[in-house]
């Protein structure tokens, strides 16, 4: 292998951190020549001001310098032409037309909508930690923050900086590349809202049905998640517009209902499962959050009572296939504190009882079969 070919192979293996593919596969490598130990390398980025520019450049330099005989690297960085970007977005879509739903009934991606009857039951905290726990198992995970009015996923996953600014997706023409946190690709309406000035609160979303429907649809069709094993949706509480939209767009989705043990939450949680089932979705199970916490003296402190999760599972099982109580997550100050800090408890304090319960929930969901019955496999005759 010639020095030029060796450098091209090494450079081409560098992974684009946003697209998660080798840059050679993305046609980002240009002219390469080696003379007198100097490797002259040309690459192009997808857009001007690419957020990953410094990282890609550093890794390309390191890859070229690792080739035996190379003593220095001269790197030239350019930008794709509009036609090159258009070709790239078409390849990324795999020939699928723009704005076509990639996660419908024929998809091999497992779609799980995490819902609740009431707000304040810890649904978003559970969803964020569950996503990270699944990614830790080697799964490709995406997370859509569908709680447009009450979005909190970016903060829970550390995508908000010290100034309160939220990480933004990168746009390649009409395709959006979502930010990645702890191995999870994330999209939220919070990434598109700004503060009017200084320390002012982030602007509120005062939208009704059509706008909400359009927003969720765009998150699912215009955001490039790539090949996912699991797509989680953090749903708003209740049975409103977005619950109906998701039922229409993703009738193949599985639903996990989150509740607290108290009857005031569990009674309402049943309704969210009923609405999901009415739109054709399958209720996979129930998660009871804020359950009893074991105190140092061995006693159990049940601030919100007990039995709510089991009651929801039993109510949703009537006359249908059984619905299981998938997990009981105990009250935990670390779960709350780590969420406020933007570091999931499953990473920051894996020995915490709440973290252990979420890890067990992730293992249960990861081990469940995808269910390929009735789905068209992507096979073409040779």
Description:
The two termini are 32 Å apart. The protein has 12 helices and 15 strands. A hairpin with a 2-residue loop joins strand 1 (29-35) and strand 2. It has an 8-stranded mixed sheet with strand order 8-9-5-10-4-11-12-15, sandwiched between helices. Strands 1-2-3 form a 3-stranded mixed sheet, with helices on one face. It has a two-stranded antiparallel ribbon with strand order 6-7. It has helices at 3-12, 53-65, 82-92, 123-136, 153-156, 209-221, 241-249, 263-278, 308-317, 333-341, 345-348, 353-367; strands at residues 29-35, 38-45, 72-79, 110-116, 141-145, 170-172, 175-177, 180-181, 184-188, 230-234, 254-259, 282-291, 293-294, 300-301, 324-330. Helix 4 crosses helix 12. By secondary structure, the protein is of the alpha/beta class. The longest helix has 16 residues, at 263-278.
Mean pLDDT: 88
Structural class: alpha/beta
Rg calculated over all Cα atoms: 23 Å
What sequence of helices (H) and strands (E) makes up the elements? HEEHEHEHEHEEEEHEHEHEEEHEHHH
Instruction: Give the beta-strand count.
Output: 15
Strand content: 15-25%
Low-confidence stretches: 372-382
User: Widest sheet: strand order?
Assistant: 8-9-5-10-4-11-12-15
Oligomer: single chain
Shape: elongated
- Describe the sheet with the most strands: 8 strands, mixed
- Number of continuous helical runs: 12
First-to-last CA distance: 32 Å
Helix percentage range:
25-40%
């Amino acid at each position: 292998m010639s020095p030029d070919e060796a450098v091209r192979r090494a450079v081409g293996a560098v992974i684009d951190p946003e697209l998660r593919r080798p840059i050679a596969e993305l046609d980002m490598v240009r002219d390469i020549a080696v003379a007198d130990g100097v490797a002259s390398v040309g690459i192009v980025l997808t857009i001007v001001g690419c957020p990953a520019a410094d990282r890609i450049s550093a890794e390309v330099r390191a890859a070229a310098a690792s080739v035996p005989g190379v003593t220095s690297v001269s790197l030239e960085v350019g930008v794709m032409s509009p036609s090159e970007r258009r070709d790239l977005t078409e390849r990324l879509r795999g020939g699928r037309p723009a704005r076509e739903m990639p996660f419908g009934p024929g998809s091999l991606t497992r779609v799980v909508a995490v819902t609740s009857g009431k707000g304040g039951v810890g649904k978003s905290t559970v969803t964020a930690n569950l996503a990270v726990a699944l990614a830790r198992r080697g799964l490709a995970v995406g997370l859509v923050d569908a709680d447009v009015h009450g979005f909190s996923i970016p903060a829970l996953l550390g995508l908000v900086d010290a100034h309160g600014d939220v990480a933004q997706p990168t746009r390649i023409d009409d395709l959006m590349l979502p930010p990645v946190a702890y191995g999870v690709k994330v999209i939220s309406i919070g990434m598109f809202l700004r503060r009017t000035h200084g320390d002012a609160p982030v602007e509120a979303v005062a939208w009704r049905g059509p706008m909400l429907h359009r927003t969720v649809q765009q998150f699912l069709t215009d955001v490039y998640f790539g090949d996912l094993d699991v797509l989680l949706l953090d749903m708003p509480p209740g049975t409103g517009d977005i619950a109906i939209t998701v039922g229409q767009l993703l009738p193949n989705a599985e639903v996990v209902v989150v509740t607290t043990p108290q009857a005031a939450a569990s009674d309402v949680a049943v309704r969210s499962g009923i609405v999901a089932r009415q739109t054709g979705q399958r209720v996979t199970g129930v998660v009871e959050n804020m359950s009893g916490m074991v105190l140092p003296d061995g006693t159990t402190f049940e601030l919100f009572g007990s039995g709510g999760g089991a009651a929801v599972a039993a109510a949703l099982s009537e006359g249908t296939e059984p619905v299981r109580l998938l997990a009981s997550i105990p009250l935990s100050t670390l779960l709350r504190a780590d969420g406020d800090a933007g570091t999931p408890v499953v990473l920051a304090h894996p020995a915490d009882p709440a973290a252990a319960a979420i890890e067990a929930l992730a293992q249960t969901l990861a081990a469940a079969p995808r269910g390929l019955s009735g789905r068209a496999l992507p096979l073409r005759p040779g």
